[in-house]
Design brief:
This protein is mostly helical. The chain contains nine helices and three strands, in the order αααααβαααββα. Strands 1-3-2 form a three-stranded antiparallel beta sheet, covered by helices on one side.
Length: 273
């Protein structure tokens, strides 16, 4: 899709974004009309705008003029594939010098080299990642399996505090709660994605990104004081968190650590022989 050329359409596009922001904010406040939600929403909008400004203005104007991308996905794709600034010429006219510019170029070159080296290593000796990566990977899988035998949380119900809380039940049917605003279950497919990347392509940065999102999804459960327990929908108060939840979070943390170590190992220069 080509970029917009009409000034009127560009202004209209900006106004539509403003309408989306206003509509989404109003909907959230109508659902939870509290000062805490309003403050967090304002902070989220402000921080998001500042971060976008940093990515697509500050980096180009104050770090490196060649650091230009069409959007967030283009930037992440370039960084993940090692293309970002990897072929830049530090001495060419218009290129910004300095420590930050050199560091970004160096990181991009190392990521590209890591990708090529990782592909070569997999072709020569598949299934031989670092012992630390393997240990963390195995710990993640075992912790996840152990978590399925335990309770995930406890309800404030003296008659049946363990209702709805077996972890295996939550794994099989927890996706239904996503439609009611409980996003913690999404950590499971994200964790599976991390495992697959660690096992098949341990040098990919996407394993780290997916692991971070999985951990955020899992920890988001701590923000809920009540949990849905029926089709009404009916809710019950969460009284505590079981060993299953702790093992589950530990499994995700171990997978994230494994992906971080794998990425760090791939970026480290290979020893000379």
């Amino acid at each position: 899709m080509s970029d917009l050329k009409s000034k009127q359409l560009i202004v209209l596009k900006g106004l539509l974004f403003l309408c989306i922001i206003a509509g989404a904010a109003a909907t959230i406040l109508l659902e939870q009309p509290t000062l805490k939600v309003a403050a967090l929403l304002a902070l989220l909008v402000w921080a998001s705008a500042r971060f976008y400004y940093f990515l697509f203005y500050v980096l180009e104007k104050h770090v490196d003029p060649s650091f230009r991308y069409a959007g967030v996905f283009a930037l992440l794709s370039a960084l993940a594939s090692g293309r970002a600034l990897a072929t830049q010429d530090p001495g060419r006219p218009g290129a910004a010098g300095g420590h930050w510019s050199d560091s970004i170029r160096s990181l991009a070159r190392r990521m590209k080299a890591a990708r090529d080296r990782g592909a070569a290593n997999l072709a020569k000796a598949p299934g031989r990642p670092s012992i630390i990566v393997v240990t963390l990977f195995v710990a993640s899988v075992l912790s996840f399996g152990a978590s399925l035998t335990q309770d995930g949380f406890y309800l404030q119900d003296r008659h049946n505090p363990n209702a709805w809380s077996p972890s295996i039940f939550l794994l099989l049917f927890g996706w239904l709660a996503v439609f009611k605003g409980f996003f913690a279950w999404l950590a499971n497919p994200a964790l599976l994605f991390v495992w697959s990347l660690i096992w098949f392509r341990p040098t990919r940065i996407w394993a780290v990104v997916a692991g971070a999102f999985a951990l955020l999804f899992a920890l988001s459960f701590l923000c809920h004081q009540r949990i849905i327990t029926g089709q009404g929908p009916s809710y019950a108060t969460i009284a505590g968190y079981g060993l299953g939840y702790r093992l589950w979070v530990g499994s995700i943390a171990a997978a994230l650590a494994s992906s971080v170590v794998a990425l760090w190992k791939s970026l480290s220069p290979s020893p000379r022989v």
